[in-house]
Amino acid sequence: EDKLAARAEIFRFPAQLTSLSEPIQVLVEAMFGESRYEEAAWLRGLYLTSATQEGAPIDRLTAALSSSFGLPPRRA
């Protein structure tokens, strides 16, 4: 069962990344957008890193789905 749960998490990873697209776009536009006061910086890449997580991480996809059905968010 643990292996099945791990596979489910791996399968949901692309949807997790997709859920970050709007917040990342807002951040990038704020940091690298046009300004009449100075030349815009260039974004050369976006790098994904990982670290050990303590406690229960929040699953953004599950939280969004729960919210759309009027359910309270829960920890992953």
Overview of this structure, please?
With 76 residues, the protein is mostly helical. It has a domain of 36 residues. Helix content is 51%, strand content 0%. The chain has three helices and no strands. The longest helix has 18 residues. It is elongated, with a radius of gyration of 17 Å. The relative contact order is 0.12. The mean pLDDT is 81.
Q: How does the SSE layout of this entry go?
A:
Layout: H1 2-19, H2 21-32, H3 60-68
List keywords for this structure.
single chain; 51% helix; mainly alpha; 76 residues
Unreliable stretches (pLDDT < 50, length at least 5) are: none
The biggest sheet amounts to: none
Shape type: elongated
> How much strand content do the residues show?
under 5%
Helix content: 40-55%
The DSSP helix count reads 3
Query: Average pLDDT across residues?
Result: 81
> Gyration radius, to the nearest Å?
17 Å
Number of separate strands: 0
Summarize the structure.
Helix content is 51%, strand content 0%.
